[in-house]
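Revision sheet: structure tokens.
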Amino acid sequence: MFLIGPIVVAGHLSKNIETILLACIGIAATGFFIVTDCPAADLPVVVSPAPLKARPTVNYDWSGFYVGGHVGYGRGYGHDTLSDPGPSAADSSFGSLSGGMQFGYNYRLPSRLLVGIEGDISFPSYLDDGIVGSRTTPSSAVAEKLDFVSTVRGRAGYAFDRWLFYATGGLAWSQARFLEDSNLTGNEDKVLRMRAGWALGAGAEVAIAPGWSARLEYLYDHLGKASGTFPSGAGYESTTVDLNNLRLGLDRKLDWTGEATSSRDVSDPRAIDPISWNVHGQLTFIEQGYPAFRSPYQGTNSLTGANQIQNTTSATAFVGYRPWDGTEIYINPELMQGFGLNNTLGVAGFPNGEAQKSNFPIPRIDIARVFVRQTFGLGGEQETVEDGPNQLAGKQDISRITVTAGRFAVLDIFEGNTYSHDPRVDFLNWNMYCCGSYDVTMDKIGFTWGAAVELNQKSWAFRTGYFLVPVVSNVNSYDTHILERGEYIGELELRYSLFAQPGKLRLMGWADIANMGSYAEALAMPVTTPNYPDITQTRQVRTNYGFVANMEQAITGDLGIFSRASWSPGLVEIIGWTDCDESLSFGTVLKGNAWGRPDDRIGVAGVVEGLSPTARAFFAAGGLGILIGDGRLNYRPEQILEAYYAYSLNTWATLTFDYQFIDNPGYNADRGPVSVFSGRLHAQF
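Predicted:
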């Protein structure tokens, strides 16, 4: 792009014309204007004090395979007819955040024209759950959802400098999910149908760094009709659905030869400095099940006694950018799919840390994290920060203040532990990798909005934070009475050396001020009250609080131990984590150097959890908690033993075999024990 007076000339000019123009352009110290020494013009020559340097020509090679991801917003319209028994028609409109992946191939011709082909798949947000429309009749309630939308499209465009402008069009299809809650059958019934159609759109793409490009794209999807008949006899027909999508995407060029992934000139001053941004990703798949166990009875929130197998999958992109020194911005789009055992109910120390409390048969998108981290260096000695997920490489003062604000998980900042903190790579059990009686504030998939401040020194750190709480227990909406309600938390971290090996001790206190029910008040209700003891009828603004001590200690370079102890009074219902009022865990992790596999790990740990006397009485009377409730209770502490072997497949993938023995599931000696077997595949780049 060249600036001539107020005129902007865009494009890639031929070499000869560009040379003549550069010879005829000057820039004055006080401004800019056209100056020329062209022979045909009898004008005075003005010499610029600083000759213009030609911007390096950038010829990004768009040809080749690429893979990427996208997020966006779609607005759609539909029309449906419900026959139950007579037909009734209605129009619907809907909107949803969406996200997914794309894969394609481009070929740039010598003329700079580009042709290509691309396939993609998009999933709706977990909050909207892909709902297209819903109808209610005296005998049933019917809803239609779009599980996904996928396309295969041709692309044709023009590439110049680092820009690509293109048009696109091709085939589109989606899966329609019709659901009915029928008074006649008493069940939720579903009918799945495929919709076929076409897609048309346009977009612009710009190379931002070697091997990387960003895009803005509009896509119109026209999906054909679908219909079905439910077991109740009700018929449902949905005519065409039209979607308007605006999407932002990021593409990574693939290289099958092992050479550099981009022929772009890395000295281009318009490229993003490689130390100012990064992209990482992870994929975790967990298959988990157990054989049948002793279960003389079970309640609404019981772990069913019959054998069961479930799985969960998550895929996350970690994108970071440093606009200037000290400031970092991160965004983490995440796809999630699957079910925890028994819909993530029945055990206080739940065996799968990836089990969302919102269960998704088809992947759903979420912007899991979007936050800003501001670091204020206080001078003195510095330390190196390695490149990683939500972490940009560089150096920072050891003595510093760090402020983090946005949407993220509280456990991203607090309750850290080298040996047990991440269920994607460490122990799977909730109360092994975390919190016990600490009622972590979160929505149904583990995140919230808030801010934290940390003062870090060489031998200690102190961090504190404030976070939004849910409106009531275990929902996705937040209580926005800022400061009046919320979670307040503080943690002191002490670093020391024992027998020349590093160790850490973290002491944490927390308080939740939220709309919570009382165990005692629920028990005091008349026993004739429907759903007695119904704690939801006693909800009002209350305070819950507690303490956690968290220790880690290296024994050798390969062997380490950890332990957590937690306590809370156990008087009110849980808002985010699990039904637990006291816990004690201890475990050890050993690296595989001794048997020639240094990247392998063995972990063994145990945890004992308990309830307060008031909570025991509540569950014995048939009360339901956030995770447990057998309808009755023969109380014993819940005891869990977990062991795993993590086998490193290569530098970026690990396969883990995990076993958990759960005694007294849900604190009930009448049920269990349960043996849970798991396999976990984790990959990251």
